[in-house]
Structure prediction request, 256 residues.
Amino acid sequence: MKRKTYFAVVCALFFIGFILRYAADHSDGLFIASQKEGESGLMADSKITNKKVYLTFDDGPSENTDEILDILKKNKVKATFFVVGKQTEKARKQYQRIVLEGHTLAMHSYSHNYDQIYSSVDAFGKDIKELQEMLYEITDVKPTIYRFPGGSSNSCAGNIKPYIEYINKEGLLYFDWNALSGDAINFNLSPQQLNKNILNDVKKQKVSIVLMHDLAEAENTVKSLDSLIKTLKKDGYQILPITKYTQQIHHVSVDK
Ligand SMILES: [Zn+2]
Prediction:
């Protein structure tokens, strides 16, 4: 073999060896990369959806608040708590925990006393301010989202419109609901029945605001919650906390 040819063969073998070695070193990475792309592609197909559910809990804090928060945390889900005014040390910690764990702390009146709240717009406003200031002092967050006791369609307020005008004037937002479990109508409904009621409503619409209660008596709401969240996720719903950008559901409204 001539010297030039010998040199060319050695170079070629060296080059082929280099290519083979490079391929061996990087094949796992290439495989993993393509596998990951495949996974994210699958996720894009099955998980991203426009169907939204907002879980809301009225009337807390209560004996059940911490357990509700534990279940939400375990399932990595954020919700909205429409709270009333309570001054106990335990309640203060629960308001703080709601905020610290990323949920929306929203207002549901200080007293929850219909006769008092709906006696006049002045009384209504004082009640809101009392709750808002108390929550700000405890959590450093000034809530701006409200739910009328009984909803905006309640029969106790008489004409609700002046109260809605007050909410609008103060730059607050109010949210009613379009799905409910019935947990405060009958505390004996089974966890399965509560979830059935919610899912019946939820499947009829793209955006659902679900009314539940954070009340000591509503134990079956706590028992049903883990299964509700897992079913909603399996069926492709996004579970989100209410914010000022959330599509508002109003039973009664007035033009701004
Ligand atoms: Zn209530």
